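Go through this chain.

——
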Amino acid sequence: MVFKIVGGGLLICACFAYGCCMSKNLYMRMNFIKSFIVFLSALSTNIRYNSADIFTLVSISARSEELSALKIKDDIPNCPFGVIWEERIKSIPKCYSLTKEDKELLTEFGSQLGKTDIDGQLKHIELYKAVFKKQLANSEEAIIKKSKLYKTMGFFVGTAAALLMI
């Protein structure tokens, strides 16, 4: 009987922990989007005042830990920026829980970056900054709606399973 109670308690804890992890993923997405908006501001400034190529500018602007996947290594082959950017977007860890729409927006952003003059690039960045601010609002709304739900559901699913086990 003691083993069933201990097992039930562990099951409840495990399910609750899973709910907490799901909740944390929502916060990870929000933090990534916030970091990307800061990245866009830094990139805008670097494009305006730095004469380096787009590869260097992106690497300089991607300083935060969340955006380390966007840094472009020095040993890159002679590929267009859009191709390398798309590979970097695909290499973003799943722990950030980016939606398909988020990844598509990121890919679209990079596909047009560096193809126009400075004014065109700055306008392009401002456009996507507005788009990602909307994504940030959606992310914050998802946190409000789902964060507590994931934790609660984890606890109650674990409790129900433990009761069935006992």
Summary: The mean pLDDT is 88. Residues 2-49 form the longest helix (48 residues). Residues 23 and 90 are 23 Å apart (CA to CA). The radius of gyration is 21 Å.
